[in-house]
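Ticket #4471: structure output looks truncated?

Reporter: J.K.
Steps to reproduce: submitted the chain below (173 residues) through the standard prediction queue, then opened the result file.
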Amino acid sequence: MKLTPYDIREHEFTQKFRGYDVGEVASFLEEVAQEFDVLIRELQARGEEIERLKAERERMAEERKALREQEAVLRGNLEMINNMQEEMKKGAEREAQLLVKDAELEAREIIKQAERERLRMEKELAEMRQQRKYFEVKMRAVLETYLKMLDMEKEEDRQQAEEKVRFLNKGLE
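Returned output as attached by the reporter:
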C-alpha cells in the first residue's frame, strides 16, 4: 500500500475506551504527514535531478561520440594533409632537380657559346694584328718615302739657297 500525506492526515483511528489522546494523535499525524510531504518533495526533486543528470550524461555521451567522430575526421584530414605535404615536397624536389639539370644544360650551352665567341674573337684579333703589321710596314714605307722626298727637297732647297747666296755674293763683289 502506498501512503501519501493526505492518507496520513485523513486516516481515522477507531476509538476505544482508554485509548490515545485524539488531539495528540492528530498533532503527531500532522507532523508525520508534513515530514512525509517534505520527504516526497525531496524524493521528487532528487528524481528530477537524477533525470536531469541522466539527460546530461546522455548529452555528454553524444557530445563525446561527436567529438570522437570529429577527432577521427581531423586525424584523417591531418594524415591526408601530411601525405599531401610529402607529395608536394617530393614534387618540389623533383622540380628543383629538373630546374638544376636545365640550368646545368643552359650553363653548358652558354659556356660552349662563350668558347666559340672567344675563339672567333681570338681569330679576329690575330687577323687585326696581322693587318696592323701590314699597315705598319706600308705606313713605314710611305713615311720613309716622304722622308726621302723631304730630304731631297731640303737638299734642293739648300742647293738653291746656296746658289742664290752665291749669286748675291757675286753681285756684291
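Triage note (M.O.): checked the attachment and the full C-alpha cell line is present. The mean pLDDT is 89.
Status: closed, working as intended.
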